[in-house]
Request: fold
Amino acid sequence: MTRLSYSILLLFLGLPQFMLAETMTPGTWIKVSKAKETHGLKRYGDVYGSSDHGAWLSFGPLNLDNGLVDRVEVQLAAQSTLGKLEFRLDSLDGSLVGEVQIRHTGGYSSMGYQQGYSEQLAGQHKIFLVLKGGKNLCNIKAFRFLKPGQKAAPGSLGPNVTPKSEKGLSLEKLLENNQENIKKHRTHSLKVLATPGATIEIKQIRHHFEFGTAINKNGFITNKNVTAEDQAKYKKIILGNFNSVVHENAMKWYSNERKQGVQNFKNADIMLDWADQNGLLTRGHCVYWGRDNLVPKWQKGISDDELREKLEERAKIYMTRFSSLKEHDINNEMVHCTYYKKRLGPNIWKQMFDWCHEFDENALLYVNDYSILSGGDTGKYVKQIEGFLKSGMNVGGIGVQGHFGGGKINPTSIKKKLDQLGQFNLPIKITEFDVNSQDEKRKAESIATLYITAFAHPSVEGIYMWGFWKKLHWRPNAALWNADWTPTPSVDVYRQLVFKEWWTDEKIEANNKGEGALRPYFGQHKVTINGKSKPIAISPDTGVTVLDCRSSNPDEWVLR
Reply:
Protein backbone atom coordinates (compact mmCIF):
# COMPACT_ATOMS: atom_id res chain seq x y z
CA MET A 1 0.00 0.00 0.00
CA THR A 2 1.37 3.43 -0.91
CA ARG A 3 1.68 6.22 1.66
CA LEU A 4 -1.08 8.14 -0.13
CA SER A 5 -3.40 5.11 -0.11
CA TYR A 6 -2.68 4.57 3.58
CA SER A 7 -3.52 8.21 4.28
CA ILE A 8 -6.84 7.87 2.44
CA LEU A 9 -7.62 4.71 4.39
CA LEU A 10 -6.94 6.48 7.68
CA LEU A 11 -9.27 9.29 6.69
CA PHE A 12 -11.96 6.78 5.69
CA LEU A 13 -11.64 5.01 9.05
CA GLY A 14 -11.59 8.28 10.95
CA LEU A 15 -8.14 7.60 12.45
CA PRO A 16 -5.65 10.40 13.21
CA GLN A 17 -3.01 10.99 10.57
CA PHE A 18 -0.26 11.74 13.10
CA MET A 19 0.52 8.05 12.71
CA LEU A 20 2.12 8.97 9.37
CA ALA A 21 4.69 11.34 10.83
CA GLU A 22 8.21 10.65 9.60
CA THR A 23 10.48 9.31 12.32
CA MET A 24 13.47 11.40 13.36
CA THR A 25 16.42 9.07 13.89
CA PRO A 26 19.34 10.47 15.92
CA GLY A 27 22.40 10.74 13.71
CA THR A 28 20.43 10.99 10.45
CA TRP A 29 20.77 14.26 8.57
CA ILE A 30 17.65 16.28 7.76
CA LYS A 31 18.29 18.32 4.64
CA VAL A 32 16.95 21.86 4.64
CA SER A 33 15.82 21.34 1.05
CA LYS A 34 13.07 19.16 2.60
CA ALA A 35 11.63 22.08 4.61
CA LYS A 36 7.83 22.26 4.53
CA GLU A 37 7.76 26.03 4.97
CA THR A 38 10.32 28.83 4.78
CA HIS A 39 10.34 32.54 5.50
CA GLY A 40 12.96 35.20 4.77
CA LEU A 41 15.50 32.93 3.07
CA LYS A 42 16.59 32.24 -0.49
CA ARG A 43 17.26 28.80 -1.88
CA TYR A 44 20.50 28.08 -3.75
CA GLY A 45 20.28 24.46 -4.88
CA ASP A 46 20.27 22.32 -1.73
CA VAL A 47 21.23 25.27 0.52
CA TYR A 48 19.21 28.10 2.08
CA GLY A 49 20.93 31.45 2.52
CA SER A 50 20.41 35.23 2.69
CA SER A 51 19.53 34.45 6.27
CA ASP A 52 18.73 37.48 8.37
CA HIS A 53 17.44 37.73 11.93
CA GLY A 54 13.89 36.31 12.10
CA ALA A 55 14.16 34.06 9.04
CA TRP A 56 12.98 30.47 9.57
CA LEU A 57 12.33 27.03 8.12
CA SER A 58 9.91 24.38 9.38
CA PHE A 59 10.02 20.59 9.12
CA GLY A 60 7.58 17.80 9.82
CA PRO A 61 5.59 16.90 11.77
CA LEU A 62 8.24 14.42 12.87
CA ASN A 63 8.00 11.50 15.26
CA LEU A 64 10.54 12.41 17.94
CA ASP A 65 10.02 9.46 20.27
CA ASN A 66 13.59 8.28 19.71
CA GLY A 67 14.69 11.61 21.10
CA LEU A 68 16.97 10.86 24.05
CA VAL A 69 19.44 13.30 22.50
CA ASP A 70 21.82 15.87 23.92
CA ARG A 71 23.18 17.79 20.91
CA VAL A 72 22.10 19.23 17.59
CA GLU A 73 24.61 19.45 14.73
CA VAL A 74 24.31 21.77 11.73
CA GLN A 75 26.09 21.80 8.39
CA LEU A 76 26.54 25.46 7.49
CA ALA A 77 28.83 28.10 6.00
CA ALA A 78 29.37 31.48 7.67
CA GLN A 79 31.41 34.58 6.95
CA SER A 80 31.72 35.61 10.60
CA THR A 81 31.01 34.54 14.17
CA LEU A 82 27.63 36.13 14.63
CA GLY A 83 24.13 35.08 15.61
CA LYS A 84 22.63 31.72 16.39
CA LEU A 85 20.24 29.02 15.17
CA GLU A 86 17.34 28.14 17.46
CA PHE A 87 15.38 24.90 17.22
CA ARG A 88 11.81 25.20 18.49
CA LEU A 89 8.82 22.88 18.63
CA ASP A 90 5.55 23.58 16.77
CA SER A 91 5.86 27.37 16.42
CA LEU A 92 8.31 30.25 16.20
CA ASP A 93 7.95 30.86 19.94
CA GLY A 94 7.48 27.21 20.93
CA SER A 95 9.67 25.28 23.33
CA LEU A 96 13.36 25.91 22.72
CA VAL A 97 14.94 22.46 22.32
CA GLY A 98 18.30 23.31 20.78
CA GLU A 99 20.63 26.19 20.00
CA VAL A 100 23.78 26.52 17.90
CA GLN A 101 26.00 29.60 18.09
CA ILE A 102 27.16 30.43 14.56
CA ARG A 103 30.94 30.50 14.10
CA HIS A 104 32.76 31.50 10.96
CA THR A 105 33.82 28.72 8.59
CA GLY A 106 35.90 30.76 6.14
CA GLY A 107 33.12 32.15 3.97
CA TYR A 108 29.64 31.46 2.61
CA SER A 109 30.90 28.74 0.28
CA SER A 110 33.03 26.94 2.87
CA MET A 111 30.82 24.36 4.57
CA GLY A 112 31.59 23.16 8.08
CA TYR A 113 29.91 21.36 10.97
CA GLN A 114 28.94 22.96 14.26
CA GLN A 115 27.14 21.62 17.34
CA GLY A 116 24.96 22.99 20.10
CA TYR A 117 23.26 21.48 23.11
CA SER A 118 19.71 20.20 22.88
CA GLU A 119 16.85 19.09 25.09
CA GLN A 120 15.39 15.59 25.08
CA LEU A 121 12.66 15.14 22.48
CA ALA A 122 9.46 13.10 22.45
CA GLY A 123 6.08 13.01 20.75
CA GLN A 124 5.16 14.29 17.30
CA HIS A 125 6.00 17.88 16.50
CA LYS A 126 7.00 20.31 13.83
CA ILE A 127 10.55 21.60 14.17
CA PHE A 128 11.18 25.27 13.47
CA LEU A 129 14.74 26.37 12.72
CA VAL A 130 14.90 30.09 13.51
CA LEU A 131 17.81 32.46 12.84
CA LYS A 132 18.62 35.15 15.39
CA GLY A 133 21.12 37.95 15.74
CA GLY A 134 22.14 39.73 12.51
CA LYS A 135 22.13 39.84 8.70
CA ASN A 136 23.43 37.28 6.21
CA LEU A 137 24.24 34.98 9.10
CA CYS A 138 24.98 31.77 7.22
CA ASN A 139 24.10 29.31 4.48
CA ILE A 140 22.47 26.17 5.86
CA LYS A 141 22.51 22.71 4.29
CA ALA A 142 21.37 20.18 6.90
CA PHE A 143 20.95 19.42 10.60
CA ARG A 144 20.60 16.39 12.85
CA PHE A 145 20.21 15.47 16.51
CA LEU A 146 22.79 13.31 18.28
CA LYS A 147 22.50 10.94 21.23
CA PRO A 148 24.97 11.08 24.13
CA GLY A 149 28.26 9.59 22.95
CA GLN A 150 27.21 9.58 19.29
CA LYS A 151 30.03 10.83 17.06
CA ALA A 152 29.65 14.09 15.20
CA ALA A 153 30.99 14.71 11.70
CA PRO A 154 34.80 14.81 11.33
CA GLY A 155 36.05 18.28 12.22
CA SER A 156 32.76 19.31 13.77
CA LEU A 157 33.06 22.15 16.28
CA GLY A 158 31.73 21.09 19.66
CA PRO A 159 29.04 22.99 21.52
CA ASN A 160 30.46 26.33 22.51
CA VAL A 161 29.76 28.04 25.80
CA THR A 162 28.70 31.54 26.66
CA PRO A 163 31.35 34.03 25.46
CA LYS A 164 34.03 34.71 28.05
CA SER A 165 33.13 38.39 28.10
CA GLU A 166 29.80 37.48 29.70
CA LYS A 167 30.63 37.09 33.36
CA GLY A 168 28.38 35.23 35.76
CA LEU A 169 27.86 35.88 39.43
CA SER A 170 30.63 34.67 41.71
CA LEU A 171 29.91 31.87 44.15
CA GLU A 172 30.22 34.34 47.02
CA LYS A 173 27.76 36.77 45.43
CA LEU A 174 25.24 34.03 44.70
CA LEU A 175 25.39 32.88 48.30
CA GLU A 176 25.08 36.45 49.54
CA ASN A 177 22.01 37.06 47.36
CA ASN A 178 20.30 33.92 48.68
CA GLN A 179 21.56 33.76 52.25
CA GLU A 180 18.47 35.30 53.83
CA ASN A 181 16.15 32.71 52.26
CA ILE A 182 18.54 29.86 53.01
CA LYS A 183 18.67 30.89 56.65
CA LYS A 184 14.88 31.24 56.78
CA HIS A 185 14.00 27.96 55.09
CA ARG A 186 16.91 25.62 55.92
CA THR A 187 17.90 26.45 59.51
CA HIS A 188 16.23 26.71 62.89
CA SER A 189 17.06 28.66 66.04
CA LEU A 190 17.95 26.45 68.98
CA LYS A 191 18.51 27.50 72.58
CA VAL A 192 20.70 25.10 74.55
CA LEU A 193 20.32 24.96 78.33
CA ALA A 194 23.46 23.79 80.14
CA THR A 195 25.61 24.90 83.07
CA PRO A 196 27.20 28.38 83.08
CA GLY A 197 30.43 28.42 81.07
CA ALA A 198 29.88 24.94 79.60
CA THR A 199 31.44 24.25 76.19
CA ILE A 200 28.66 23.39 73.73
CA GLU A 201 29.56 21.70 70.43
CA ILE A 202 27.20 20.72 67.61
CA LYS A 203 28.40 18.76 64.58
CA GLN A 204 26.16 17.81 61.69
CA ILE A 205 25.96 14.15 60.69
CA ARG A 206 23.42 14.24 57.87
CA HIS A 207 21.29 16.71 55.93
CA HIS A 208 17.50 16.70 56.06
CA PHE A 209 17.44 18.14 52.52
CA GLU A 210 17.91 15.42 49.92
CA PHE A 211 21.24 15.76 48.13
CA GLY A 212 20.92 12.75 45.86
CA THR A 213 22.12 10.98 42.76
CA ALA A 214 20.89 8.45 40.24
CA ILE A 215 22.60 5.06 40.58
CA ASN A 216 23.35 2.71 37.71
CA LYS A 217 23.03 -1.07 37.91
CA ASN A 218 26.54 -1.54 36.51
CA GLY A 219 27.89 -0.03 39.70
CA PHE A 220 26.44 -2.99 41.62
CA ILE A 221 25.97 -5.98 39.31
CA THR A 222 28.90 -7.98 37.93
CA ASN A 223 29.44 -6.93 34.32
CA LYS A 224 32.18 -6.66 31.71
CA ASN A 225 32.28 -2.85 31.64
CA VAL A 226 33.00 -2.01 35.27
CA THR A 227 35.62 -3.74 37.43
CA ALA A 228 35.02 -4.80 41.02
CA GLU A 229 37.55 -2.16 42.07
CA ASP A 230 35.59 0.53 40.24
CA GLN A 231 32.34 -0.71 41.75
CA ALA A 232 33.84 -0.37 45.24
CA LYS A 233 34.94 3.19 44.39
CA TYR A 234 31.51 3.94 42.92
CA LYS A 235 29.81 2.96 46.18
CA LYS A 236 32.34 4.84 48.29
CA ILE A 237 31.71 8.05 46.31
CA ILE A 238 27.96 7.67 46.80
CA LEU A 239 28.29 7.22 50.56
CA GLY A 240 30.71 10.12 50.90
CA ASN A 241 28.68 12.66 48.92
CA PHE A 242 24.96 11.86 48.86
CA ASN A 243 22.22 11.02 51.33
CA SER A 244 19.63 9.75 48.87
CA VAL A 245 19.48 7.84 45.59
CA VAL A 246 17.19 6.95 42.72
CA HIS A 247 17.52 3.96 40.38
CA GLU A 248 18.40 5.23 36.92
CA ASN A 249 16.65 2.43 35.01
CA ALA A 250 16.38 -0.70 37.18
CA MET A 251 12.83 0.02 38.43
CA LYS A 252 11.45 0.92 35.01
CA TRP A 253 8.93 -1.42 33.43
CA TYR A 254 11.13 -2.28 30.47
CA SER A 255 13.75 -3.53 32.94
CA ASN A 256 11.28 -5.51 35.05
CA GLU A 257 9.16 -7.25 32.40
CA ARG A 258 11.07 -7.54 29.14
CA LYS A 259 8.99 -10.61 28.25
CA GLN A 260 5.27 -10.48 28.94
CA GLY A 261 4.44 -12.20 32.20
CA VAL A 262 8.06 -12.71 33.29
CA GLN A 263 8.90 -10.39 36.19
CA ASN A 264 12.52 -9.61 37.07
CA PHE A 265 13.39 -7.23 39.89
CA LYS A 266 16.77 -8.77 40.74
CA ASN A 267 18.89 -5.73 39.88
CA ALA A 268 16.46 -3.27 41.46
CA ASP A 269 16.37 -5.32 44.66
CA ILE A 270 20.16 -5.58 44.93
CA MET A 271 20.50 -1.80 44.57
CA LEU A 272 17.65 -1.05 46.98
CA ASP A 273 18.99 -3.46 49.60
CA TRP A 274 22.42 -1.83 49.43
CA ALA A 275 20.89 1.63 49.81
CA ASP A 276 18.79 0.49 52.79
CA GLN A 277 21.76 -1.15 54.50
CA ASN A 278 23.72 2.08 54.18
CA GLY A 279 21.00 4.41 55.41
CA LEU A 280 20.25 6.05 52.06
CA LEU A 281 16.76 7.22 51.17
CA THR A 282 15.53 5.86 47.82
CA ARG A 283 13.01 7.50 45.48
CA GLY A 284 10.87 5.19 43.34
CA HIS A 285 11.38 5.74 39.63
CA CYS A 286 9.10 4.92 37.95
CA VAL A 287 5.80 3.00 37.84
CA TYR A 288 5.03 3.84 34.19
CA TRP A 289 6.72 5.63 31.30
CA GLY A 290 4.78 6.36 28.12
CA ARG A 291 7.68 7.11 25.81
CA ASP A 292 6.68 5.34 22.60
CA ASN A 293 10.01 3.67 21.85
CA LEU A 294 10.67 2.65 25.48
CA VAL A 295 7.42 0.98 26.49
CA PRO A 296 7.98 -2.80 26.65
CA LYS A 297 7.80 -4.00 23.04
CA TRP A 298 5.26 -6.72 23.78
CA GLN A 299 2.71 -4.07 24.77
CA LYS A 300 2.31 -3.01 21.16
CA GLY A 301 1.09 -6.49 20.21
CA ILE A 302 -1.74 -6.80 22.73
CA SER A 303 -5.27 -5.41 22.67
CA ASP A 304 -6.33 -2.26 24.48
CA ASP A 305 -8.27 -4.31 27.04
CA GLU A 306 -5.22 -6.48 27.72
CA LEU A 307 -3.03 -3.39 28.02
CA ARG A 308 -5.38 -1.85 30.58
CA GLU A 309 -5.24 -5.07 32.61
CA LYS A 310 -1.44 -5.07 32.46
CA LEU A 311 -1.31 -1.45 33.62
CA GLU A 312 -3.37 -2.33 36.69
CA GLU A 313 -1.24 -5.40 37.31
CA ARG A 314 1.92 -3.28 37.07
CA ALA A 315 0.58 -0.95 39.77
CA LYS A 316 -0.14 -3.90 42.05
CA ILE A 317 3.24 -5.59 41.54
CA TYR A 318 5.33 -2.40 41.71
CA MET A 319 3.55 -0.65 44.59
CA THR A 320 3.39 -3.81 46.69
CA ARG A 321 7.02 -4.69 46.11
CA PHE A 322 8.31 -1.19 46.83
CA SER A 323 5.88 -0.28 49.62
CA SER A 324 8.83 0.62 51.87
CA LEU A 325 9.52 3.66 49.69
CA LYS A 326 7.84 6.93 50.57
CA GLU A 327 7.44 8.33 47.06
CA HIS A 328 7.41 7.37 43.39
CA ASP A 329 7.37 9.05 40.00
CA ILE A 330 4.06 7.64 38.82
CA ASN A 331 4.08 8.09 35.03
CA ASN A 332 7.27 9.65 33.77
CA GLU A 333 7.17 12.74 31.54
CA MET A 334 3.43 13.03 30.81
CA VAL A 335 3.81 16.42 29.11
CA HIS A 336 5.84 14.73 26.40
CA CYS A 337 5.36 10.95 26.57
CA THR A 338 1.76 10.00 25.86
CA TYR A 339 1.73 6.44 24.52
CA TYR A 340 -0.82 5.14 27.06
CA LYS A 341 -3.03 8.20 26.68
CA LYS A 342 -3.08 7.76 22.91
CA ARG A 343 -3.94 4.08 23.24
CA LEU A 344 -6.50 4.24 26.04
CA GLY A 345 -7.67 7.83 26.30
CA PRO A 346 -6.92 10.64 28.81
CA ASN A 347 -8.74 8.95 31.71
CA ILE A 348 -6.04 6.28 31.89
CA TRP A 349 -3.78 8.71 33.74
CA LYS A 350 -6.33 9.12 36.55
CA GLN A 351 -6.72 5.35 36.68
CA MET A 352 -2.98 5.03 37.17
CA PHE A 353 -3.17 7.28 40.23
CA ASP A 354 -6.17 5.34 41.58
CA TRP A 355 -4.53 1.94 41.06
CA CYS A 356 -1.26 2.99 42.69
CA HIS A 357 -3.05 4.39 45.74
CA GLU A 358 -5.22 1.28 45.95
CA PHE A 359 -2.11 -0.80 46.54
CA ASP A 360 -0.23 1.77 48.69
CA GLU A 361 -2.56 4.43 50.02
CA ASN A 362 0.21 6.34 51.79
CA ALA A 363 2.57 6.68 48.83
CA LEU A 364 3.38 10.15 47.51
CA LEU A 365 2.92 10.03 43.74
CA TYR A 366 5.05 12.57 41.90
CA VAL A 367 4.63 13.90 38.41
CA ASN A 368 8.01 14.34 36.71
CA ASP A 369 9.01 15.96 33.44
CA TYR A 370 11.83 17.41 31.37
CA SER A 371 12.28 20.72 29.57
CA ILE A 372 11.10 22.41 32.75
CA LEU A 373 14.11 24.08 34.38
CA SER A 374 16.31 23.82 31.29
CA GLY A 375 13.62 24.32 28.65
CA GLY A 376 10.45 26.18 27.86
CA ASP A 377 7.69 23.82 28.95
CA THR A 378 7.06 25.12 32.48
CA GLY A 379 3.78 26.72 31.42
CA LYS A 380 2.53 23.48 29.87
CA TYR A 381 3.52 21.63 33.03
CA VAL A 382 1.65 24.08 35.25
CA LYS A 383 -1.51 23.67 33.14
CA GLN A 384 -1.21 19.89 33.22
CA ILE A 385 -0.84 19.82 37.02
CA GLU A 386 -3.82 22.19 37.37
CA GLY A 387 -5.87 19.80 35.25
CA PHE A 388 -4.78 16.78 37.26
CA LEU A 389 -5.73 18.39 40.56
CA LYS A 390 -9.11 19.59 39.26
CA SER A 391 -9.91 16.07 38.04
CA GLY A 392 -9.21 14.62 41.47
CA MET A 393 -5.80 13.09 40.88
CA ASN A 394 -3.95 12.87 44.18
CA VAL A 395 -0.66 14.43 43.10
CA GLY A 396 1.79 14.13 45.98
CA GLY A 397 4.71 16.11 44.61
CA ILE A 398 6.25 17.77 41.58
CA GLY A 399 9.41 16.47 39.95
CA VAL A 400 11.33 18.83 37.67
CA GLN A 401 14.20 17.85 35.43
CA GLY A 402 17.07 20.08 34.42
CA HIS A 403 19.35 18.55 31.81
CA PHE A 404 21.36 21.63 30.90
CA GLY A 405 23.81 22.27 28.08
CA GLY A 406 26.96 24.32 28.34
CA GLY A 407 25.47 27.80 28.48
CA LYS A 408 25.04 30.00 31.50
CA ILE A 409 22.23 29.05 33.91
CA ASN A 410 20.12 32.07 34.77
CA PRO A 411 19.22 32.03 38.50
CA THR A 412 16.36 34.50 37.99
CA SER A 413 14.79 32.20 35.40
CA ILE A 414 15.20 29.16 37.66
CA LYS A 415 13.57 30.95 40.59
CA LYS A 416 10.69 32.15 38.42
CA LYS A 417 9.97 28.61 37.24
CA LEU A 418 10.14 27.23 40.77
CA ASP A 419 7.77 30.01 41.90
CA GLN A 420 5.30 29.03 39.17
CA LEU A 421 5.31 25.43 40.36
CA GLY A 422 5.32 26.44 44.02
CA GLN A 423 1.79 27.82 43.71
CA PHE A 424 0.42 24.30 44.24
CA ASN A 425 1.90 24.03 47.76
CA LEU A 426 3.31 20.62 46.89
CA PRO A 427 6.88 19.49 47.54
CA ILE A 428 9.18 20.05 44.58
CA LYS A 429 12.20 17.90 43.86
CA ILE A 430 14.74 18.45 41.13
CA THR A 431 14.69 14.82 40.13
CA GLU A 432 17.24 14.81 37.30
CA PHE A 433 20.01 17.37 37.02
CA ASP A 434 23.21 17.58 35.01
CA VAL A 435 25.25 20.07 33.00
CA ASN A 436 26.57 18.68 29.73
CA SER A 437 29.69 20.73 29.10
CA GLN A 438 33.35 20.19 28.30
CA ASP A 439 34.09 23.57 29.87
CA GLU A 440 34.70 22.45 33.44
CA LYS A 441 34.70 25.98 34.86
CA ARG A 442 31.34 26.75 33.28
CA LYS A 443 29.96 23.42 34.51
CA ALA A 444 31.04 24.18 38.08
CA GLU A 445 29.48 27.65 37.90
CA SER A 446 26.23 26.17 36.60
CA ILE A 447 26.10 23.58 39.38
CA ALA A 448 26.64 26.30 41.98
CA THR A 449 23.91 28.46 40.45
CA LEU A 450 21.34 25.67 40.41
CA TYR A 451 22.09 24.34 43.88
CA ILE A 452 22.14 27.75 45.58
CA THR A 453 18.95 28.92 43.85
CA ALA A 454 17.07 25.70 44.60
CA PHE A 455 18.32 25.36 48.19
CA ALA A 456 17.04 28.88 48.88
CA HIS A 457 13.57 28.10 47.53
CA PRO A 458 11.02 27.05 50.18
CA SER A 459 9.22 24.52 47.97
CA VAL A 460 12.27 22.49 46.97
CA GLU A 461 13.02 19.45 49.15
CA GLY A 462 15.79 17.78 47.19
CA ILE A 463 18.17 17.81 44.21
CA TYR A 464 19.22 14.62 42.44
CA MET A 465 22.13 14.54 40.01
CA TRP A 466 21.45 12.18 37.13
CA GLY A 467 24.71 10.32 37.68
CA PHE A 468 28.19 11.39 38.72
CA TRP A 469 30.85 9.10 37.14
CA LYS A 470 31.90 9.44 33.50
CA LYS A 471 31.88 5.69 32.74
CA LEU A 472 28.28 5.34 33.93
CA HIS A 473 26.80 8.65 32.85
CA TRP A 474 24.25 8.96 30.05
CA ARG A 475 25.94 12.27 29.09
CA PRO A 476 29.64 11.64 29.89
CA ASN A 477 30.67 15.30 29.71
CA ALA A 478 28.23 16.06 32.53
CA ALA A 479 29.98 13.77 35.03
CA LEU A 480 31.62 15.15 38.17
CA TRP A 481 34.22 12.39 38.38
CA ASN A 482 36.28 11.38 35.36
CA ALA A 483 36.62 7.76 34.24
CA ASP A 484 39.84 7.40 36.28
CA TRP A 485 38.06 8.87 39.33
CA THR A 486 39.90 12.18 39.26
CA PRO A 487 37.46 14.87 40.39
CA THR A 488 36.44 17.75 38.15
CA PRO A 489 36.26 21.29 39.60
CA SER A 490 32.52 20.72 40.09
CA VAL A 491 33.26 18.29 42.91
CA ASP A 492 34.95 21.00 44.96
CA VAL A 493 32.06 23.40 44.33
CA TYR A 494 29.46 20.79 45.27
CA ARG A 495 31.25 19.73 48.45
CA GLN A 496 31.99 23.33 49.44
CA LEU A 497 28.26 24.05 49.41
CA VAL A 498 26.87 20.83 50.87
CA PHE A 499 29.50 20.03 53.48
CA LYS A 500 30.88 23.44 54.40
CA GLU A 501 28.58 26.36 53.62
CA TRP A 502 25.43 24.44 54.56
CA TRP A 503 26.90 22.21 57.24
CA THR A 504 26.68 22.88 60.99
CA ASP A 505 29.95 22.64 62.94
CA GLU A 506 29.95 25.07 65.86
CA LYS A 507 31.46 25.44 69.31
CA ILE A 508 30.20 28.05 71.76
CA GLU A 509 30.36 28.74 75.49
CA ALA A 510 27.21 28.94 77.61
CA ASN A 511 26.63 32.36 79.23
CA ASN A 512 26.39 32.98 82.95
CA LYS A 513 22.79 31.72 82.86
CA GLY A 514 23.90 28.47 81.28
CA GLU A 515 22.34 29.33 77.91
CA GLY A 516 23.74 29.10 74.41
CA ALA A 517 22.15 30.14 71.08
CA LEU A 518 22.67 28.16 67.86
CA ARG A 519 21.09 28.06 64.41
CA PRO A 520 21.77 24.62 62.91
CA TYR A 521 20.79 23.41 59.44
CA PHE A 522 17.97 20.89 59.37
CA GLY A 523 19.28 17.38 59.75
CA GLN A 524 20.90 14.99 62.19
CA HIS A 525 23.54 16.33 64.60
CA LYS A 526 25.71 15.29 67.51
CA VAL A 527 25.62 17.63 70.48
CA THR A 528 28.54 17.47 72.93
CA ILE A 529 28.68 19.33 76.26
CA ASN A 530 31.76 19.02 78.43
CA GLY A 531 32.71 15.76 76.75
CA LYS A 532 29.25 14.10 76.90
CA SER A 533 27.28 13.60 73.67
CA LYS A 534 23.83 12.86 72.29
CA PRO A 535 22.50 12.67 68.70
CA ILE A 536 19.55 14.92 67.86
CA ALA A 537 17.41 15.47 64.75
CA ILE A 538 15.99 18.82 63.72
CA SER A 539 13.59 19.09 60.78
CA PRO A 540 11.12 21.69 59.49
CA ASP A 541 8.34 19.71 61.15
CA THR A 542 9.72 19.34 64.67
CA GLY A 543 9.13 22.86 65.92
CA VAL A 544 12.02 22.37 68.32
CA THR A 545 13.37 25.53 69.95
CA VAL A 546 15.07 24.33 73.15
CA LEU A 547 17.53 21.56 73.98
CA ASP A 548 17.65 21.04 77.73
CA CYS A 549 21.04 19.54 78.66
CA ARG A 550 21.18 20.49 82.33
CA SER A 551 21.27 16.87 83.42
CA SER A 552 24.68 15.21 83.72
CA ASN A 553 23.19 12.18 81.93
CA PRO A 554 22.90 12.72 78.13
CA ASP A 555 20.05 10.21 77.99
CA GLU A 556 18.00 12.74 79.92
CA TRP A 557 18.68 15.65 77.56
CA VAL A 558 15.37 16.74 76.05
CA LEU A 559 14.35 18.57 72.89
CA ARG A 560 11.25 20.70 73.34
